């Protein structure tokens, strides 16, 4: 394949805060395109209509732009193979699904969600991996036609070979073989006529002429499904590359439950995008000591997709801090440094709105740092003594913090109104007064019991920073005497 024909893509789902893992995969694809003189494309995969939101889509675009990545085609700029948002392509997929059914490679499944859950529970109880048992596989054509005509809800599933295995070559893992009996009869089209990720992914990659698919290793087990769909449609699959997942130092998977993973968290704390891309790019290249400080252009020059490691990419925050410090000291002029500081402080309205909230709460300007400084701190240095003035017991404080954290994750649009509404709902559900819920949050978020208004502060800090501060606060409270920990 000629280098000039290379087309790669990043295809995030707008279902939450953009993850550093998305930047990691996007950077690989970007460097791959640069290396081969190809095209880097952005596609929004929003087939999960219940969780995808325009707010999260905009956050994806903003985060990737902040990272310094530029795409030649995407939902914001268009291109010859658009639209680049799957919800805008809904009409495209069904004919491909119907072709698979007509050629005998797919079937209509009328199983209810209740029946499927009972099936999975029985399989798990028997120690078997849950997968579809094929109940609707052999329905007669007459029965299928009758039930469809009656308007009975159904999905379309793909057939899987009864024996043998799927063999393919991966750009990182080499030759891979996965037995067909380990592959589920994947749903291709949901009851609402929206395609599943797997179906839309294959069709879109084909229509957008994607030549190489580089994604996280968690998708390796899905390759047999994708290869089958390509085969059933008579299409040539792209070349696959599955990159090692980023992991914590203890080799556990990087997840927001353990560590800050949102790009917005690193933006809020004042990391430079160049430093973050430098840090992530080092996973893809071989360098000698002393050559660590690299721009995206320099990373592209050293990038070697033929020499990738299957070892986990360790997200070492100390190394990121070290690189960020070097970028600040060595790469920015005094004027650039000042400009970056002002830009960072103004992000998300922190400076302007923070000053607006502070004006009626101070008697002299020198009180500003103590009152509003928490909006700009990377670490509050929270200690148990900060909770001394809160009347609740450590047990109650911990109960509040542990209850609030997952509830705030349910908020789709992060603003002071939605935050207040959610916390009022938490208070009502827990049978507590709102002030009992709010008091420990003031301390967790600001480090003090005297602060700016809580809901406004949480909006300005952003979801990712609030999540981390509540997590730290829960750890601090759990260490207090009488917490039962």
TrEMBL record:
Subunit-level organization: Monomer.
Motif ('HIGH' region): 12-22
UniProt signal peptide: none
Phylogenetic classification of the source organism: Bacteria, Pseudomonadati, Pseudomonadota, Alphaproteobacteria, Hyphomicrobiales
Domain Glutamyl/glutaminyl-tRNA synthetase class Ib catalytic: from-to ranges: 6-322
Entries under PANTHER family matching the protein: GLUTAMATE--TRNA LIGASE (PTHR43311), GLUTAMATE--TRNA LIGASE, MITOCHONDRIAL-RELATED (PTHR43311:SF2)
Keyword entries, A-Z: Aminoacyl-tRNA synthetase, ATP-binding, Cytoplasm, Ligase, Nucleotide-binding, Protein biosynthesis
Binding site for ATP: 256
Domain Aminoacyl-tRNA synthetase class I anticodon-binding: 336-473
Cross-referenced Pfam families: Anticodon_2, tRNA-synt_1c
Database matches in HAMAP family: Glu_tRNA_synth_type1 (MF_00022)
GO molecular function: glutamate-tRNA ligase activity
Major enzyme class: ligase
Record-stated family: Belongs to the class-I aminoacyl-tRNA synthetase family. Glutamate--tRNA ligase type 1 subfamily.
SUPFAM superfamilies per record: An anticodon-binding domain of class I aminoacyl-tRNA synthetases (SSF48163), Nucleotidylyl transferase (SSF52374)
Record protein name field: Glutamate--tRNA ligase
Annotated localization: Cytoplasm
CDD domains: GluRS_core
Gene behind this protein: gltX
Reactions catalysed: tRNA(Glu) + L-glutamate + ATP = L-glutamyl-tRNA(Glu) + AMP + diphosphate
